[in-house]
Write a structure and sequence with these properties.
The structure is a single chain. The chain has helices at residues 3-12, 18-23, 30-41, 49-56, 60-72, 84-106, 111-124, 127-143, 161-167, and strands at 156-159, 171-180, 199-204, 207-213, 216-221, 226-239, 242-244, 247-249, 252-256, 261-265, 270-283, 286-287, 291-299. By secondary structure, it is of the alpha+beta class. The protein has 2 domains: 3-143, Arc Repressor Mutant, subunit A (Orthogonal Bundle); 157-299, Immunoglobulin-like (Sandwich), CATH 2.60.40.1850. Strands 1, 2, 3, 4, 5, 6, 7, 8, 9, 10, 11, 12 and 13 form a 13-stranded antiparallel β-sheet that branches. It is elongated, with a radius of gyration of 23 Å. The chain starts with a helix and ends in a 6-residue tail after the last strand.
Length: 305
């Protein structure tokens, strides 16, 4: 299965988030993570204690001792491969590590210092601190600028979907998604009831998608004078004068982030996305006429789903 498919399965499953599991897990020390990253950076078919020792400038015995400790904690298997627990932990760690390192480098910190400090913060700082730094760094990385100063509250930066996936670390993020009326964006459209909340943002291999799960719409019909239910039947939108329809698989709608207009504004940087869409619904055996709505996305706290 493709990486995107694996992540869609994660999105579909009703499980606790990796972040919640980390709260119950003893974190690896910065030394252990340094050794583990070095070990995993080697080609799987050619991994050796000797090569890892050369990269770390330590003895082979030192590498084996640290990896054995990590294995005893359940993160590595008998052949020093990542276990399921190890994969979850490494994914959780790597998302934060990449985001914080990029943020430090944007603020003129050398790569070596950025990597060392990010490793230290994630391993030893309170989880609330590392989460706050990851959240702030993601917004700053996306905007590709330092955090806004107070006097710049009206400043707004527009960016393409390609830039969004370039600056976000791989993973699944929780996002606020609303569908609003085209003629009055202060009011919610009927389309807003057609999806489960919140939505997800998937970043994988420099590609990105907004993921929304369709659900039934139930309401009291003024015309029929009774309760009716229906479902979103079709979605389409126009990009560069071309009409596109998002892919739907197992009721999960995938909208490429490259098709969405993104902007970053306000103190600290609030990331928002906007895309006008046309949709149709079915109510019983009836097909409702095509209507329009604006999909509005807001990202203020980025957390791995």
């Amino acid at each position: 299965m493709s990486p995107d498919g694996d992540m869609l399965l994660l999105f579909s499953a009703n499980v606790r988030t990796v972040g919640e599991k980390i709260l119950e897990t003893k974190r690896l020390s910065r030394t252990q993570m340094n050794y583990l990253r070095t070990w995993l950076s080697q080609d799987e078919s050619n991994r050796s204690m000797a090569n890892a020792a050369l990269k770390l400038h330590v003895s082979r015995a030192a590498v084996q001792k640290i990896l054995n400790t990590i294995r005893e904690q359940g993160f590595l298997g008998e052949k020093y491969e990542l276990t399921k627990q190890g994969e979850d932990y490494y994914g959780w760690y790597n998302l934060r590590y990449q985001s914080i390192v990029k943020w430090f480098k944007l603020n003129d910190i050398s790569e070596e210092e950025a990597m060392e400090t990010a490793n230290l913060l994630i391993a030893e700082a309170p989880l609330s601190v590392s989460e706050m730094l990851m959240n702030k760094s993601v917004v700053c990385n996306i905007c590709h600028m330092r955090a806004f100063e107070p006097e710049d509250t009206d400043q707004k930066i527009e960016l393409t979907g390609e830039k969004l996936s370039e600056f976000l670390a791989e993973g699944i993020y929780t996002v606020n998604v609303e569908f609003r009326k085209v003629k009055n964006e202060t009011e919610l459209s009927m389309a807003d009831k057609a999806f489960e909340k919140p939505g997800k943002l998937l970043i994988s291999a420099n590609r990105g998608y907004i993921l929304l799960r369709r659900k039934k719409i139930s309401y009291i019909s003024n015309i029929l004078q009774r309760a009716v239910s229906g479902k979103m039947r079709s979605l389409e939108y126009c990009v560069h004068d071309r009409t596109r329809s998002p892919r739907v698989e197992n009721d999960v709608v995938r909208i490429p982030v490259r098709d969405i207009l993104w902007s970053c504004s306000g103190p600290g940087g609030v990331l928002t996305g906007r895309l006008q869409m046309a949709f149709t619904c079915t109510v019983g055996s009836m097909h409702m006429p095509k209507a329009e709505a604006v999909m509005c996305i807001k990202i203020t706290d980025q957390k791995l789903a």
